[in-house]
Amino acid sequence: MSEPRFPLVQLCRFVTSALQALGLPPHDAAIVAQLMAQAEAQGSDGHGLIRLAPYARRIRAGGINLRPDIRVVKERAGMALLDGDNGMGHLVMHKAAQIAIDKARHCGVAWVGARLSNHAGPASLYARMPLAQDMIGMYFAVGNANHLPPWGGLDMLLSTNPIAVAVPAGQEPPVVLDMATTVAAYGKVKAKAQRGETMPVGWMIDRLGQPLTDPKRADEGFLMPIGGYKGYGLALIVGLLAGTLNGAAMGSEVIDFNHDDTSVTNTGQAILAINPDAFGDLAAFKARVDKLVRELRGAERMPGVERIWLPGEQSHERRMASERDGIALPPALLAQLDSLAHELSILALQAS
Predict the structure, then answer these.
(1) Which among 168, 121, 114, 176 has a CA at the least distance from the CA of 276?
(2) CA 302 to CA 291: how far, in whole Å?
(3) Which parts of 84-210 are beta strand (E)?
């Protein structure tokens, strides 16, 4: 039996209604809902609607400021530092991206950091925002729970600390890399647990170094960094740039929002916008990106390989399919959303 599908606009309406029922102002609720639905549409199921119930739990516990004063506290021509006032991370980073884009128009390059933010969904949502203005976007964040020890250690002092980069192309889809510094983002672990699936060997190990494949036992182990010690080093650097530089939480200061609904997380994030027009002819740059994309895709393939993919191509195809066919939601997630709708006295999702 196939999973029921829902138009993107219906998911946006549902999440907007839920967030308004929880106390967010209508305009803010609509921004967060749009970004959450986009995450689901592109296949980032660990950071999409699966997060709505945990957000609701945290909001009800008073862990998120529903009417934050998101403001610039430090600023120069090519940079800014935002204080998110413990608001929804989607709102903080939506504003950060707009500031970075505006500054990059004049400075060529602009960096905007944020502190006192919260979980904001998949990194690519914000790296992609400069694409609409033919700019390159880069996003960095400190994860909202530590699941990674220093290389060779056991103390959880680092998180998945994601990085995303989006590069505009001409006729080809943009090149969009979105990756955790661990083999798998923790959101994927949550999605596996909700669906009753096991994790592949290599995602996690227990404290004795043995493979851990049951996502419901995730607290008994930790995520593996990509590339061994290199992934650990990358997680550290991303955390320094997104957290420490902004005065946000890092290391032992990070609050595990999976188990603590009331403490201020002081999540750190950063976005960099680069205006290719400042470096030369924009059309020529995009044409060169197209040429490289086609060279890579057309490279000789190993036996059994049907297609060479570029970063972001599969997410791009999922977005196109979601717009055409609607977004499929697994039964466990749909049941969770139905329960939340009942609690909030809003209309539940209805499959078309």
Answers:
(1) 168
(2) 22
(3) 109-117, 136-141, 163-167, 175-179, 204-206
Q: Look at residue 140 and give its three-state secondary structure.
A: strand
Beta strands 79-83 and 71-76 are: antiparallel
Q: Which helix (H) or strand (E) holds 54?
A: helix 52-60
Model's pTM, two decimal places? 0.95
Pair 242, 263 in one domain:
yes
Torsional class of 42: left (φ above 0), alpha (ψ -120 to 50), beta (otherwise): alpha
Give the integer Cα–Cα distance in Å for 266 and 250.
9
Q: Which residue has the tokens 């994601």?
A: 162
CATH of residue 346: 1.10.1530.10
What angle separates helix 8-21 from helix 331-344, to the nearest 10 degrees? 40
SS3 category, 315: helix
Distance CA 263, CA 109 (A): 35
pLDDT tens digits along 139-198: 999 999 999 999 999 999 999 999 999 999 999 999 999 999 999 999 899 889 988 999
- Domain assignment present for 142: yes
